[in-house]
Amino acid sequence: MTDKPYVTLSSATSLDGYLDTADPPRLTLSNDADLDRIDDVRARNDAILVGARTVRRDNPRLLVRSVARQTRRETAGLTRSPWKVTVTATGDLDPHAAFFTAGDTTKLVYCPTPEAESIRRRVGHTALVVGLGNSVTMTDLVTDLADRGIRQLMVEGGGTVHTQFLAANLVDELHLAVAPFFVGDRRAPRFVGDAVFPWTSDRRATLADVRQIGDMVLLRYALSDRFTSHDAERHHRLATTPLVMGIS
Q1: Sign of CA dihedral 196, 88, 178, 145
Q2: What is the distance between the alpha carbons of residues 16 and 178, in angstroms, rounded to a whole number?
Q3: DSSP strand E in the chain: where?
Q4: What is the pLDDT of residue 62?
Q5: Beta partners for 75?
Q6: Total number of domains constituting the chain
Q7: Residue 194 class from Cβ within 10 Å (0-12 exposed, 13-18 middle, 19+ buried)?
Q8: Statement: residue 152 has pLDDT above 90
Q9: pLDDT band for position 234 (50/70/90)?
Q10: Domain range for residue 61?
């Protein structure tokens, strides 16, 4: 799939690999500096994808926060924030969730074709609902995004979506930020679930970068042979485009 979007999977976990606690309130893993880094990655992508469970549990806005980065996107002829994408098997989505109501960017909901009409009635005109056969696969999803002109996709979770993208070998680059504490509760959601992954003890993932961000550490892995050329292109853009840090 050489024409698929370049996929960056971004996640923060505890030291023992959890995304959150089992019970409310939502666990904050990233510090302010890491949130700013995530904001920059968002601003450099065409679309951001989360699973429906993340929409329900976390109610994310999925918007670029920095005014400077919003302006940079507008100058390039883009919307102030990337497209927002979610995938659902059942259509259990609240049309009043921030995913649908925040921002003026395009929202896409992928679902099984038999569920598409009922989901359209549920979310109304807040999003474009796309049926992808009897069961949605991430391969079909990214193919459809490519057909819609998406060249760079950021995947932000949760664990089921992470598992599906990684097991299908669709991720080009992995950003894993590790917070300096443990959750220690097996009821809590983990970074990934059970699956057969392409990277094993016999085929290790390539560690491309390690960076300390305050009290956290960012591990950046190259998971495809597209990483090198994409990284070189990005570094060229960074060298020629002023970057103003900060979250507004």
Answers
A1: positive
A2: 9
A3: 6-13, 47-51, 83-87, 107-111, 128-131, 152-157, 173-178, 206-213, 216-222
A4: 98
A5: none
A6: 1
A7: exposed
A8: yes
A9: low
A10: 6-240
Q: Judge contact between 143 and 2, C-beta under 8 A.
A: no
The answer to whether position 1 is within a domain reads: no
List, for residues 179-210, the tens digit of each pLDDT value.
999 999 999 999 999 999 999 999 999 999 99
pTM (two decimals): 0.92
* Alpha-helix residue ranges (DSSP H) falling in 27-150: 32-43, 52-58, 67-75, 98-101, 113-123, 138-147
pLDDT at res. 230:
72
The rounded distance, in Å, linking the Cα atoms of 119 and 93 is 8
Q: Is 138 helix (H, G, I), strand (E, B) or coil?
A: helix
CB atoms within 10 A of CB 109: 27
The CATH number that applies at residue 208 is 3.40.430.10
Q: What is the pLDDT of residues 75-97, one digit of tens each?
A: 999 999 999 999 999 999 999 99
CA dihedral 167, 220, 18, 203 (to 10 degrees): 40
What is the C-alpha to C-alpha distance for residues 141 and 67, in angstroms, rounded to an integer? 30
**Given its phi and psi angles, is residue 74 left (phi above 0), alpha (psi -120 to 50 degrees) or beta?**
alpha
Task: Look at residues 83, 75, 15 and name the one whose alpha carbon lies nearest to residue 45.
Answer: 83
Helix (H) or strand (E) run with residue 163 in it: helix 159-167
List residues bridging with 110 in a β-sheet. Answer: 87, 130
